[in-house]
Every structure is written in C-alpha cells, then in structure tokens.
Amino acid sequence: MAALLFAIIFLPAAGALVLAFFDDDAEDGIRWTGVSFSVATMVATLLLLGGFNYEDPGIQPLVQADGQALESYVYAHEGDVLFDGEVNPVGIEIDEEGVVRNADGEEVEGAVLLAAGDVVHNGKVAEEVTHDGPLEAGQFRRGFASEWIPHWNVYYRVGYDGIAVPLVLLTSVISFLAMLASWSIKKMVKGYVILFLLLETGMLGVFLALDFFLFYIFWEVMLLPMYFLIGVWGGPRREYAAIKFFLYTLVGSVLMLIAMLMFYFYSADASADGSKIFNLLELARIAKAGGFDQNVQLIAFVLLFIGFAIKVPTFPFHTWLPDAHVEAPTPISMILAGVLLKMGGYGILRIAFPLCPWATQAAALVLVVIGAVSIIYGALAAMAQTDFKRLVAYSSVSHMGYVIVGIAVWKLGESTAVANPDQWRMGLSGAMFQMIAHGVSSAGMFFMVGVVYDRVHHRNLNEFGGLTLKMPLYSGLAAGIFFAGLGLPGMCGFIGEVAVTLASFSYSAFLAVVVASGVILTAGYILWALQRVYLGAEYKGPHEEALVPMNGRETLIAGTLLAFAVVLGVYPRLILDMMDGSVGLLVENLAAGYEAVAPAAEETALAP
C-alpha cells in the first residue's frame, strides 16, 4: 500500500522527468506520453479502492509493526462483542444488563465487549499508537510515516479516509480528461505537458498528506505550474490573470504558514513528550482534548479560513477566479474548476475544522453568511455576463457557496455541543458531494465552452445562436452537462444542493430560503445561456463556417463527463457511502473538541 500511495503521488512527476529527455518537436509522442502517465495514475487511484475499508471512518491504511498495512481487520462499533477470535459471532447476544450470553441464554466466559473504534486483527484487539516511535507486535499506526527532516520533526506522512478518497479519484479522472483536451495546445507542447504533470502531483499530494509541513509543500508545488500554465498558454490578458492568481494564492499561503507555525510551537505544551509536531493526526487529537485554547484557535482559524477560502473561492476572496478562468486555456480551466477549487474546501475540513473545533463553532454564523452571500452574488453575477466563460466562472462562486453553508450549519444545543447532529452531518455530506458534483459539471461546462471557442475564437453570448442545427451532438451533450450544473433531478448537481438546503433549515429557516433561492437563480442564468447559444434561428457571430461537428476525442471527453454526472445523480450512494463514516467521525470529534474548550471559555467570560 505504501508503494501504491507513492505511485499515485509521484507517477505524474516521473512522467514529467521522462518528458524532459524528449525532443521538443516530438509533439505527438509528448502528448501521448502525458496521457499514458495520467492513465497510469488514474488506474493507481482506482486500485486504492481495493484496500479501502468502508466500515472504518478513520485514516487508512493501518500500519503494523513490520511496516506493512493490515490486510484485513474489523472496525468495531459500540456494543460489538469479540469471542473466540470473531466479532459478533452467530448466537452471541448482550442482554439488558450488558452480560454476553449464547443462544441458550447462558453467560459466555471470555467474551470481550468492544468500544467504538476498537480494531480487531487476527482475533485480537490491536493497540493504536499515536507517537512516531517504533511499533511493537499488536500495535498499529494510522497512515504511513517516514522520517524526512528529523531536526524539525517533519515526516513524509500519507494516508486517506472517506473524505480524501473521492477527491483523489476526482483529481485523477479530471486530470486524464484535461490531458486529452490538451490537443488544442499548439505552442511549447513539451513545457506544457511537463508542467501539467507536475501540477497533478501537487494536487494529489495535497489530498493524501497527513503532515502539515508536507501538505504545505504540495500546496506550493501546485501553485507554480498553474502560474506558468496560465501566464504562458493563456489568452490576451494572461500575464495579468496569472499574476493576480499568484498574488492571491501567495497571500493565502503566507497566512497558512503562520497558522502552521503557531500549531507547531504550541503543540510542545500539549504533545505527549513535549516535542513540536506537524503531525495533523496528533494535532487534531490535541485539539479534541482541548489542548489549544480559544485564543489560539480563533487566530489560527481566521488565518486558515482566509487561506483556504481564497482557493474555494468564496466571496469576497473570489476576484482572481473570473480572470484566471477567462484567460486560462480550456484544459487548465477544467483543472481549476474541477480540482483546485476543491482543495480549499478540503483544507477547511482536513485542517481548519479539526485543529480549531471551538473556533469553528464560534465562526459558524459568519461562515454561513459568507456562503449564502456567495450563492446569491455568484448567481447574479453570472446572470449579468455576456462572456460565456466568465458566466461559467461566476457559477463556480455560487456553487461553491453551498459547500461553505453545508459545512458551517453547526447549531449549539442546551445540553450538547451539537443541537442538530443529524442535520449538520447531512450538511457536511451534502457539501462533500457538492464538491465532487461541481468538479464533474464545471469541468464539463468549461470544456464545452472551449470546444466552440476553438472553432470561432470568441465567447460573446450575444453573437451565438442556432448551434443545435449546426452541431447537434455537441449541443445535446452540452445541454446535459449544463443541466447537471443547474441541479436537475437525476443529475449530480441536485443531490448536494438539496442536502445543503435541507440541513440549512435546521440552522435557520431564513437561511434555507436564501439557499433555495440560489437554485432558482442558477436555473435562470443557465437556461438563458442555453437559449442564447444553442437555440434560435441563426448564428450571428464570425467564422460560421468553422462550426463543424465534434471529433471523436472531444465526444469521448464530453460523453464521459456527462456519464459521470448521470451516474452520480442516479446513484449518489457511490460517493455518499464512501464518505459517510468519515463525515460522522468529524462531527463527533468537533463536538468533543468544542466541549473540551467551551468550559474554559465560559469560566473566562464569567470571571470578574
């Protein structure tokens, strides 16, 4: 499993290294080599599902003393029984008094009542170790960890859970399709493909890293290739868009760096041996136990949220996005919308929330307002556009607003830290599903815009019309993909939006009305765009003769994205079952982390 995770992350980088030895003029060979490494990476991510335990909501794989992953184990739930090496064997039951009895009602000796989270391997309860020292027989550690910079306690630490795996799969699939779409790139093909593959390594590394320092490195690795891919292969204002993207992302990176150093130094007071750590799993345990006070959490959360919100992007940190999308070449717009925006949401769920549980609740109202404003503002801005690509860009601001709302609908109760645990869990699941659905539909919408732009070299909505008569297959596929973005029932966009809307009602009825209004506005600007571009009697723009049918490569890309949109809309359990356990564990951990710090906060407020 360690080799598989290493391959998933670094296969694209290996492809970039191989391409460095190619002749610059061997463009077809360069393109097909890039496609081959993207396919290999996608296959490797699919193999990851073979070792994924749907019952275990925690970080996987579980690594034992010999450094190998546990091939088979049972993740126990509350009330499970271990007897004679089996979990919950047939005929064994627990009576009302908590006594284990067999089918004849006789008390069973030697039975072990398991607690939630216990791991049973080879008929015994294994011991989870959180430190980075050597493991003994019967012990295990979550995720692979190898020393990298011992002086700073930095480890190459990787792993995955139900939140990371869907995003890893999304990244590999969208990267493969975007690489196929890169045949439209005509200049400096070698440099383009090398940077594209390095970008894919950075994105996959972000989703699999479990060390804060390693996460930050992969985050920065992603930044530079994207800067050059926009700045060199973009449109007429590419330098402006690339610099704007770089500066916004750099500001977010600096804020994240400050927060990372805060946790690194403050962890010394709470870690088991007094050492400073970057281990995200251990930092989350410290936060869950109340090891970071409310002031540290508030400052760090603000820094982390702004850093990640820039990438989401959400209002008011979104202004780099329309320019970057408009100037970026079509394949890079697919990556921007399909994957990079999800890195912001993932960072919030993987780092900002678990490390700052008390601050997460304290900021819930602010996050909900930001998300709701993003939904409405993005939709209205999209409706006002005459540039086809800029319309799709602003639609991303609106759709990602659902993610912010869904993760933030945490309402306090009188007796518990969470008044609406089931609804908040629904909101988190809806937000996660929305990220996957938007990754599919937005990548598809940008690709369909790119197909027609490559032919007529303009994106003016007022000059289109009648494309259904000239390009019927293209128009049909485009309508399906745009309907997925609209949130049509039976398509992928519907599930996440409905789940977030329902969850938001438990937080505030007014919020639910605002969120639901976004669905209506989305239908308005997408249907109006479809009417202007694909319907009507005639095409009113230049290069009408270039409006020829889609070729096989373009049809394959669009058809694949539309198929994913339909499959996820009809059978959402494909993703929901994968993430459900991890989302539930996140809710439990955040509630425990809030309760651990809340009494201290209340005592401070009541002190004279």
Q: What are the segments in which pLDDT stays under 50 over at least 5 consecutive residues?
A: 603-608
Q: Largest sheet, order of strands side by side? A: 1-10-9-8-2
The geometry reads as globular
* Radius of gyration, in angstroms, nearest whole number: 25 Å
Question: Mean of residue pLDDT?
Answer: 88
Give a short overview.
The protein has 608 residues and is of the alpha+beta class. It has helices spanning 2-19, 27-48, 164-180, 189-208, 212-233, 238-266, 280-288, 294-311, 320-327, 330-355, 357-362, 364-383, 388-408, 421-456, 467-470, 472-486, 492-507, 509-534, 552-570, 573-606, and strands at 62-64, 74-75, 81-83, 86-87, 93-94, 100-101, 112-113, 119-121, 124-128, 139-142, 144-149, 154-158. β5 and β6 form a beta hairpin.
How would you characterize this protein structure?
The protein is an alpha+beta fold. It has a domain at 369-586. 63% of the residues lie in helices and 6% in strands. It is built from 20 helices and twelve strands. Strands 1-10-9-8-2 form a five-stranded mixed beta sheet, with no helix packed on it. The longest helix has 36 residues, at 421-456. The protein is globular, with a radius of gyration of 25 Å. The chain starts with a helix and ends with a helix. Mean pLDDT is 88; it is low at 603-608.
